[in-house]
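Title: Comparing notes on inverse folding

I've been comparing how different people in this forum approach sequence design from structure. To keep things fair, I'm posting one structure and asking everyone to reply with a full sequence. Here's the target:
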């Protein structure tokens, strides 16, 4: 059968669905193990077919107009003799004398699954698999992947459902035929690609018999004309993304002399940040702004302008585009709000703005954006005075406030930023454009995203999957709940996709999805500073036993293995630690004060083939503990001079600084990550600490939870890369 041709004929006839009898031959052609069945017209023929098939049997009424047969009373199960078949057939024909009768053997099995296909408005064709039968909707134990599937994608789906123990030998029943299941999912994927007119396939139940045989006993296919997902996306070339962050001259259109206004804040922020390019203020009054004489129009500016930062009212923006074109300005940061985020009229104005700008050869970032920055050239053009240090983490946020808060935290914690964009409404430059720009950018090592919605779902997935093979993408999704979804739609002017499908897209593309804003920075610190672990085996080294136990529990919860120490390793550590040490993983240093012990034990662990990473707890931050103790003693015991106490604190501070350097050297030598958790922190402490010009840096978190989660995500990303 030529499936595509058949489907088009059905659509041409005005029908939008195939009957069960029409659906199953198509599925069988694509490798789905469908039940053996016969279509008949009369009760007599039904009896004859049932006798040949062997009792018990199932009878179903088949119609091109009635798709949900159970609700219509057209399904009769466990028919054990000729009389039961006759009565069931007569009941079916009583509803419609022209209805066909489907005769199937009664398939018995306690394990029921669901498999299918649907086309998402944003992401296109997706395959689903999960627990079926009456539990499909009640338990929602289903997983998704976008088509086309790789074989590994399909295997991941099979192993990802919570009910996966049912796939193994279970209560006397043989394990499910996984090859048949794999073939089913791959067949659905092939159908999604080959026949775009198929919008949905529902195979439920997909029964596993006691012998493990897989049988699709019911199926439905629905149809529609192809919707052209992402048919004509307006791409921005990576070189244009790069140029956006490297202006040599910037014109602030709508510059103001009034403190607190956007037109004043942005130009002051840029000038005070040390930007070495030319800065021009544009204001029709021609007044002095930030110590500079302003120009009445962009045409009055002498020389070329690479970037315009626009803060004039939305109503005046369309008239500005021809002026920008005449001046040769091709890049615009549109701070101005009042567009799609405000409703239908704003959306129409935004579409008009994008069309006008595109015709003029202009790329607009925004509108409704908080601005951009590039610390590598001291270009800080945002609505808040934040100055993160230059580094390898690129940040794009669909919420400007969220973005500048992340930049402020990054500045505080010593996390280096490659570039930042508050992407705003993304009328022209979208998340996908940024991904493709940072993909080829040599300075970018990690991409950090705050996303509320995506406009080109399929392109987002394909770009992210490609980028993830080269550098990690860490993503926080806004709009996870119903309330959040409504807020996201109001904020960005776009509807967010079903969260379960978005989670699946992230997993399939290798995106590291987090749940809280600070996790973005925790992972940025880890990925930009540490070597990737080769596996998930973790050694824990701690100054206190309880902390080690808690961390071991956290590792187990997040898929990290705590391997037992082998005899040779125990013997080596016996020569270093007193005989009452834990002699197990976690390794309790039993509060020893010898400053050389942590480094000696660390080196032994890194040399161990059974360890892929080390978490160290409580070794850093002791200088703060000692400082507080010294202050207490100085007040209470005159036998100790303040000078001697300060010297002790200074000695431990020097030791900690050297310890940071030694940790980095060990990571350079053994290519294994070392993640720290500090005993105490003060205002001088940062998460990331440099050591000379080394490739790696030391990372110290505040809590074991942060350390374990970061390491678990790194191990998961390494698995994705290895695959």
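Reply #1:
Here's my take.
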């Amino acid at each position: 059968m030529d499936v595509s041709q058949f489907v088009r004929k059905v659509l041409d006839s005005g029908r939008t669905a195939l009957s069960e009898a029409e659906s199953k031959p198509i599925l069988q052609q694509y490798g789905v193990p469908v039940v053996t069945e016969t279509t008949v017209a009369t009760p007599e023929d039904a009896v004859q077919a049932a006798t040949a098939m062997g009792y018990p049997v199932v009878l179903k009424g088949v119609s091109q107009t009635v798709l949900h047969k159970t609700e219509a009373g057209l399904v009769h199960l466990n028919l054990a003799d000729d009389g039961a078949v006759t009565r069931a057939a007569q009941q079916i024909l009583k509803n419609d004398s022209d209805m066909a009768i489907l005769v199937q053997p009664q398939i018995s099995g306690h394990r029921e699954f669901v498999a299918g296909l649907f086309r998402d408005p944003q992401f296109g064709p997706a395959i689903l698999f999960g627990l079926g039968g009456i539990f499909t909707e009640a338990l929602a134990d289903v997983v998704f992947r976008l088509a086309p599937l790789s074989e590994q994608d399909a295997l991941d789906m099979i192993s990802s459902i919570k009910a996966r123990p049912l796939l193994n030998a279970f209560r006397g029943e043989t394990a499910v035929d996984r090859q048949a299941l794999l073939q089913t999912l791959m067949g659905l994927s092939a159908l999604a690609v080959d026949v775009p007119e198929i919008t949905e396939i529902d195979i439920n139940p997909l029964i596993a018999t006691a012998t493990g045989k897989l049988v699709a006993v019911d199926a439905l296919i629905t149809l529609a004309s192809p919707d052209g997902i992402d048919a004509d996306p307006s791409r921005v070339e990576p070189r244009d993304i790069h140029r956006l962050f490297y202006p040599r001259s910037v014109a602030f259109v709508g510059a103001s002399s009034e403190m607190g206004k956007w037109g004043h804040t942005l130009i002051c922020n840029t000038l005070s940040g040390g930007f070495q390019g030319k800065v021009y203020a544009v204001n029709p009054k021609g007044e002095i702004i930030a110590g500079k004489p302003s120009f009445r129009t962009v045409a009055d500016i002498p020389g070329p302008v690479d970037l315009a930062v626009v803060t004039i009212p939305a109503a005046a923006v369309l008239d500005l585009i021809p002026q920008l074109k005449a001046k040769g300005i091709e890049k615009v940061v549109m701070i101005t709000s009042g567009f799609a985020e405000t409703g239908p009229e704003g959306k129409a104005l935004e579409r008009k703005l994008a069309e006008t700008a595109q015709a003029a050869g202009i790329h607009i970032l925004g509108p409704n954006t908080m601005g951009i920055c590039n610390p590598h050239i001291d270009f800080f053009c945002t609505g808040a005075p934040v100055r993160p240090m230059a580094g390898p983490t690129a940040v794009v946020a669909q919420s400007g406030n969220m973005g500048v808060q992340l930049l402020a935290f990054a500045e505080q914690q010593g996390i280096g930023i490659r570039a930042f964009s508050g992407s705003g409404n993304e009328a022209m430059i979208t998340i996908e454009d940024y991904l493709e720009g940072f993909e080829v950018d040599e300075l970018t090592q990690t991409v950090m995203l705050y996303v509320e919605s995506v406009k080109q779902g399929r392109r987002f997935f394909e770009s992210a999957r490609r980028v993830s093979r080269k550098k990690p993408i860490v993503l926080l999704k806004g709009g996870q709940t119903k309330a959040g979804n409504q807020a996201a739609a109001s904020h960005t002017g776009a509807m967010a996709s079903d969260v379960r499908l978005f989670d699946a897209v992230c997993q399939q593309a290798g995106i590291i999805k987090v749940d809280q804003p600070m996790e973005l920075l925790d992972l940025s610190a880890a990925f930009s500073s540490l070597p990737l672990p080769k596996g998930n085996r973790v050694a824990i080294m701690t100054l206190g036993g309880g902390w080690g136990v808690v961390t071991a529990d956290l590792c187990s919860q997040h898929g990290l293995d705590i391997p037992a120490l082998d005899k040779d390793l125990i013997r080596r550590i016996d020569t270093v630690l007193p005989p009452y040490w834990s002699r197990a993983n976690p390794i309790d240093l039993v509060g020893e004060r010898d400053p050389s012990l942590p480094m000696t034990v660390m080196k032994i662990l890194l040399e161990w083939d059974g360890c892929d990473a080390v978490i160290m707890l409580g070794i850093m931050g002791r200088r703060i503990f000692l400082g507080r103790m010294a202050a207490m003693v100085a007040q209470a015991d005159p036998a100790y001079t303040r000078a001697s106490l300060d010297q002790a604190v200074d000695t431990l501070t020097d030791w900690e600084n050297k310890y940071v350097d030694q940790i980095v050297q060990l990571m350079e030598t053994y290519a294994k990550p070392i993640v720290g958790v500090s005993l105490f922190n003060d205002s001088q402490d940062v998460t990331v600490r440099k050591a000379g010009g080394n490739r790696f840096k030391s990372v110290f978190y505040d809590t074991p939870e942060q350390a374990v989660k970061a390491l678990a995500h790194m191990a998961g990303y390494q698995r994705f890369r290895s695959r």
